[in-house]
Write a structure and sequence with these properties.
Helix content is 30%, strand content 16%. It is α+β, with helices and mostly antiparallel strands and 458 residues long. It folds into 4 domains: 91 residues, no CATH class; 37 residues, no CATH class; 55 residues, no CATH class; 233 residues, no CATH class. The protein has a 6-stranded antiparallel β-sheet with strand order 16-17-15-18-20-19. The chain has a two-stranded antiparallel sheet with strand order 1-2. Strands 3-4 form a two-stranded antiparallel ribbon.
Length: 458
């Protein structure tokens, strides 16, 4: 770091020379213009050119030929100090690496690792202090109480319950809806819902889905005027969704090609009754993860984080930037550094394109990225490509995933082509990307094997 140093000594008239300056300027030193150094006595001008004096401790440090030195640091207060004095004033955030003051509220100790210091922004992105008991709690467990207070789960449940439609805090016993579910006064009149029932179907074929992994879907609508006709006639649940004008249809846990048939049946009903979706609606897919170990889950999440740039190419531009399915706040490095999948899931946000917190509640991985759809083929193909993606990546190493997917949309797509291996399914999604004006690769047709007869995409 180049240092501009103020002259500490007056290099005025030199009298009574004792010896030559060790700084190499050739001047004769005087009694009033001599500074002792480890390299020998110097005049004030040479000393200022060749040494830095820490303003805190007063220690002198030699500069190299470019005026730089490794043992000095400039702090956020624009004061240059030696490394030791700098460290007495400041510390580096263990997460974002921003330099922050040690004193005051700018830095906080990480509750997860007492040896880590975080800046206030990084600390508040992961934790909060309960307004009632003061306990430091995971931010994802925060409940909003009345008057904008933040409560931990224990304090919240002592006095309140959350409206299952909008999440607003309700005093215990003050409101209820169907099946005695809690609704606030604003939502109870619209709470014409019913719970999902166990699926009575039996999977006998897996040709179209291409995986034995169980799955479920949530279909958000903006217009579904005849939804009441389904009550008592379907195993699908119906939920009031505050972010849309319609209702959300929730499937039971499905499996195999017969599960695809169940999706087709509900979509046929929806289309026969002129149900619609709009930009406020989303398609959420749950993939069963009960068979996956913590290490396998981390590999799958790593593969999704690595390939996120590609998955966005299949959805509408508005959906790709939607806050209900946002960009993951963790990096590939964070996934590699996680000791257990649960540690990563507990600190993630459920409103990300890949909702890891669904595993804590449902033992599933939820993909929230896709825009609303009532097209059975589109929905089933979205399920199929993700089920096969999880099957293909769960046993890959981090290095295998890096090699397979590279660093660009084109290389990620080629990696998907290689690990999925179903040309008809892949061609469907290549064409979907093209509809969004996204070209995955100009040579895909030549690089992909000839189509087979498998898949729902025919």
């Amino acid at each position: 770091m180049p240092i501009t140093q103020l002259y500490l000594f007056d290099a005025g008239p030199q009298t009574a020379p004792a010896q030559d300056c060790a700084g190499g300027c050739g001047c004769a030193l005087t009694e009033d213009n001599t500074v002792p150094t480890s390299d020998g006595p110097m005049c004030g001008r040479c000393f200022n050119d060749l040494f830095f004096v820490c303003p805190d401790c007063g220690e002198a440090f030699g500069l190299d030929e470019w005026g730089d030195i490794d043992t000095i640091r400039a702090g956020p207060d624009h004061v240059v100090r030696c490394q030791e004095c700098h460290n007495n004033h400041f510390i580096t955030c263990a997460r974002c690496t921003r330099v922050i003051p040690r004193e005051g509220n700018a830095s906080r100790v990480s509750p997860r690792n007492r040896n880590q210091i975080l800046c206030s922004d990084c600390w508040e992105s992961g934790w909060f202090e309960c307004s009632s008991c003061g306990e430091v709690t995971d931010r994802n467990l925060r409940h909003d109480g009345p008057e904008c207070i933040s409560l931990c789960p224990d304090c919240f449940t002592e006095e309140y319950v959350a409206c299952i439609a909008c999440g607003q805090a309700i005093e215990l016993g003050s409101a209820s809806g169907p099946d005695n579910d809690p609704y606030c006064s604003g939502c109870v009149g619209r709470a014409e819902t019913w719970k999902v029932q166990p699926w009575t179907g039996v999977a006998t074929s897996y040709d179209r889905v291409g995986s034995r992994r169980c799955f479920g879907v949530e279909l958000e609508t903006c217009e579904c005027g005849d939804f009441r006709h389904l009550h008592g006639k379907t195993e699908w649940g119906c939920v009031y969704e505050c972010s849309t004008q319609g209702r959300e249809l929730v499937s039971p846990i499905l499996e195999g090609d017969e599960g695809f048939d169940a999706i087709s049946d509900i979509c046929d009903f929806a289309n026969d009754h002129n149900w619609t979706t709009d930009a406020s609606c989303g398609l959420h897919v749950h993939l069963d993860a009960r068979d996956l170990s913590s290490d396998q889950l981390l590999r799958v999440v790593y593969a999704y984080r690595k390939s996120y740039m590609l998955w966005k190419k299949f959805v509408t531009r508005g959906r790709a930037g939607n806050s209900m399915c946002g960009t993951p706040q963790y990096s590939c490095a964070d996934v590699k550094a996680a000791e257990h999948f649960e540690d990563l899931a507990e600190t993630s946000d459920r409103f990300e394109f890949l909702n890891l917190r669904a595993y804590i509640c449902h033992s599933s991985i939820e993909i929230r990225l896709y825009h609303g759809s009532l097209n059975a083929r589109e929905i089933c193909n979205w399920v199929a490509i993700h089920a096969r993606f999880i099957d293909a990546t769960k046993d890959m190493t981090f290095d295998d995933i890096d090699t397979a997917f590279g660093h660009t949309v084109v290389t990620v797509w080629q990696g998907i082509v290689d690990v999925i291996g179903d040309p008809k399914l892949l061609d469907y999604w290549r064409r979907k990307a093209a509809q969004r004006n996204n070209t995955l690769t100009a040579h895909w047709d030549q690089e992909t094997p000839a189509p087979t007869t498998t898949g729902i995409t025919a």
